[in-house]
Amino acid sequence: MAEVRAEMVANVWKVVAAEGAQVSDGDTLVILESMKMEIPVLAEGSGTLTRLHVAEGDIVQEGDLIAVIE
Amino acid sequence: MLNSVLVANRGEIARRILATARRLGIRAVAVYSEADADLPFVADADEAVPIGPPPPAQSYLDVAAVLAAARRTGAAAIHPGYGFLAENPAFARQVLAEGLIWVGPPPGAIEQMGDKINARNLMAAAGVPVAAGSAEPVTSAAAATAEAARIGYPVMVKAAAGGGGIGMSAVAGPAGLAAAFETARTRAERFFGDPAILLERYIERARHVEVQILGLADGRVIALGERDCSVQRRHQKVAEETPSPGVGNELRARMLAAAVQAGQAVGYRGAGTVECLVDTAAGDFVFLEMNTRLQVEHPVTELVTGIDLVEQQFRIAAGEQVSFAPDQVRPRGHALELRIYAEDPVRFLPSPGTITQWEEPAGPGVRVDAGYTAGNKVTPFYDPLLAKLCVHGQGRAEALARARAAVAAFGIAGLRTNLPFHADLLASEEFRSGGYDTSIVSRLRP
Q1: B355-360 average pLDDT score
Q2: How far apart are CA B401 and CA B275, in angstroms?
Q3: Are B134 and B121 in contact (CB under 8 A)?
Q4: Angle, CA of B209, B121 and B265, to the nearest 5°
């Protein structure tokens, strides 16, 4: 199981992957936006995206859980 | 002179404009979002009006809220700063329709220069050199491929309505073009609400050099020297200096003359900047775009000329003469600006947070234009610019020495900043020699 967490305070601009989807290492899961910069959040490892904790428009804090891949 | 002005901006530039307004006895009104209530610019104003929640679309970009604040406070004029509504011709027209003074160029000039394709065509017609590129919008990946083949690789793909380097990318050959086109188009639509894309011949080993112009109330257009803005990351400026170490007297004279021509071609009034690319190998330049507003890096020009550019904007907007003799401007010494960003100094990723310590450097030739101070929260809603550290010296060596000392003396804690990057930049042989180009940051941070 791999947890994907936010690297910084940001707004969730786009949710790219859907819960339950098969993802591969390096796939874009969501795109965050902070300080006018888009920051893609990538899958670290392959597997099933069992949980997606964010929705578009959410604000995440540094260290917040974004997704779980199993 | 104007009796009151509303500053429709935030952070360091709002503070910068408010300072000149207050010095001139102009009543100064600030507007602010909920995220910015504790920032210094709000306290600096004679009056401050909350205009909405943190997201820019609901506050600083909300035309109705800004105009309502102007009505409520009886402000006679609006200064837009840079970014946000500064280059929005519809907003400028609404300001004028409200009977207010617009501290900016005529809306028609903003419109003509705002579309980069139109601006290129207009400049070419006025005899200003432009790079090989699109004369009309490129609307599909297939059209982009054909256009790139005509122009010749490498090409730059960018949004016609764009700015700030957003969505822009250089493409070496046909393989990367479709992806670059799609990225540019998506971002263009999202950030600028206009999907028009243009392609332009990309000049490798180029310097990004811009000319400050002022369109005077009597119709004359003058040039106030150049600024070298070649130190960039993600196509966004990080450090600027004047004079440019890469521009000799003959090239400078040609660039200044072309910038004046560019301003005259659109009937320019007020402060504007003509951005050019200098091909260091060929010793020549092409027009890139014109920014129809006060530029972020305007302080370096102020430091070498002794001219307060915001004061001139107010004077021109009020139909008055500028405060100096236009034909007797003699720049003195060398000036440098370092943009202090809230970002990690290696990967340049955003680093919002709360500032726990803020100690500004001071001393001869040091100027700090800061948007924040200790205790302030830096939020993810706006750009990462915390402050501009500017230095002036008799020559480049003195300016660089002062910059090194000032960077070392700047104490910011609580979040990551790019101060360590600036220390590396100032220590690098490439920057110290003056012989750098727009890829210097990628060499310093491979």
Answers
A1: 98
A2: 28
A3: no
A4: 75
State mean pLDDT over A27-49: 92
ipTM of the complex as predicted:
0.82
State the burial class of residue B75 (Cβ atoms within 10 Å of its Cβ: 0-12, 13-18, 19+).
buried
Confidence grade of residue B205 (pLDDT, cut at 50, 70, 90):
confident
Band the pLDDT of A21: cuts 50, 70, 90: very high
Q: Is A66 helix (H, G, I), strand (E, B) or coil?
A: strand
Interchain CB distance below 8 Å, B164 and A36: yes
> With 90 as the cut, is the pLDDT of residue B43 above it?
yes
- For B336-368, letters b (16+ CB in 10 Å) and e give bbbbbbbbbbeebebbbbebeebebbeeebbbb
Q: Predicted confidence band at A1 (pLDDT cuts at 50, 70, 90)? A: confident
pTM passes above 0.80: yes
B382 with A37: Cβ contact below 8 A: no
Closest CA to B341 of B237, B445, B446: B237
Question: Chain A partners of B353 at a C-beta cutoff of 8 Å?
Answer: 9
What's residue B140's pLDDT? 93
Interface of B with A in 166-195 (CB under 8 A): 166
Contacts of A33 in chain B (CB under 8 A): 380
Q: Is the Cβ–Cβ distance between A20 and A49 less than 8 Å? A: yes
Contact check, Cβ <8 Å, A8/B164: no
Query: Could you tell me which residues are beta bridge partners of residue B279?
Result: B206, B284
Inter-residue contact B335 to B391 (CB < 8 Å): yes
Residue B48: its H or E element = strand B47-52
Q: Which tokens in the block code for residue B67? A: 């105009």
Compute how many other C-beta atoms are within 10 angstroms of the C-beta atom of residue B222: 18
Rounded average pLDDT over B265-280: 96
Quote the CA–CA distance of B305 and B317 in Å, as a whole number: 21
Using CA coordinates, name the residue in chain B closest to A57: B55
Q: How far apart are CA B344 and CA B238, in angstroms?
A: 13
pLDDT at residue B124 greater than cutoff 90? yes
Rounded Cα gap, residues B135 and B116, in angstroms: 10
Residue B304: CA count within 13 A, CB half-sphere: 27
Q: What is the sign of the dihedral through the CA atoms of B302, B307, B312 and B314?
A: positive
Token duo for residue B418: 């790019």
pLDDT at B89 over 80: yes
Do the beta carbons of residue A32 and residue A61 sit within 8 Å? no
Which single residue is written with the structure tokens 């199993």?
A70
> Is the pLDDT score of B396 beyond 80?
yes
How many Å apart are CA B2 and CA B27, to the nearest integer? Answer: 9
Retrieve residue B198's tokens. Answer: 């243009």
Q: Would you call the peptide bond into B55 cis, given omega within 30 degrees of 0 as the criterion?
A: no
